[in-house]
Amino acid sequence: MKTTMMKTAAMILTVGLFAGCATNNGLKEEVANAQAAADAAMKAAKEAQLDAATAQGTADAALKAANTAKDAAEACSERCGRMSEKAMAK
What we know:
Elements: H1 2-18, H2 24-89
Helix pairs in contact: 1-2
Keywords: Coiled coil, Signal
InterPro entries: Oprl
Protein name: Gamma-glutamyltranspeptidase
């Protein structure tokens, strides 16, 4: 997201530097183009943020499932150990 903002800022700075040499109509067109690029970058950044939030939710659910499976495996291992001890004691 920082890279996109930096590119947009660089584009706007470039437009500003050329503003002294451009005609008024040309400057308006360049500003409009820069604004359109900035709007597109912002939209892409928001979509990326949404995708990241979705991925984080999926990762959290996977971690919860893994912890549940680990707890179940540990409980099963304890039961098997107790059963083995009882069988050996007989």
